[in-house]
Please model this.
Amino acid sequence: MQCAVKLPLFIAVASVFKAKCRVWPFTNLYLTRNTIAVNLPPAFMERMKVALAGDYPAFEASLAQPAPVSLRLNPSKPVTGFSQPDAVPWHPEGRYLPERPVYTLDPLFHAGAYYVQEASSMFVFQAIRQWAERHQKLRVLDLCAAPGGKITLLASALGNEALVVANEVIQSRVPALRMNLEKWGFPNVAIANHDPADFSKLPGFFDVVLVDAPCSGEGLFRKSPEAAT
Model:
C-alpha cells in the first residue's frame, strides 16, 4: 500500500519493531524455543534472520516469552486512585501491568479512561511529539486507523487544535473504530472510509500521514500459538 500524496512527514511503523518491546518476567510461557522452530513458518524465520541480522537472537528469545501487558491512560479523563505500575519509558501515559485483567468487567475501560495497547505501538508518540513541538494546528491522517489505538494516541498528543482524520478502508472495521474514538472523547477526529488512493486528490493538505500496514499478524505470535502457524 502506497500513499499518492507527497507530504513533509511520513511515518511508517515497521512490524519488525514490534519484536523489540519489553519482556515482562512471567513464569508461564505461551511459546517455547522448541515450539517456535516447529510452528513459525521457515520462510518467515529466514526473512527475519536477514532483516534483523545480529538482533535476530533477541527477536527469537522475545518470542519465547509471553507478551507484556500494557495500556495507555487517557489524559483527558484522569482517574484518582489508579494504581501506578511500571511506566513505559517512551510514552508519558503508558503503563505496564503485572498481569492481564478482565477489561470487559472494568467500568474505566468502557468509560475510555485507558486504551489497551502494546508498548511498542506507543513509540510513535516520540515522532509525533517532536513534529508537534515545531508546528501548530497540524492536519494528520491515519490511513489504516482501526481499531483506533494509534489515532487515540495522536489525538491526545496533538490536542484539540489539530485536525485528525481516521481512515479505515475496510468498512466492517469502522464501527469498532468509531466506538473507541467515542469512548476516548476527543472532538477533533473525523472518521473516513476511503481507499488510500482517494487522498491523492488532496495534495499537500496533510502535514503528517501515519501508515501501519500491512497487517501481518506478527503481534499475535506470543498471544495465540495458532497465529504462529
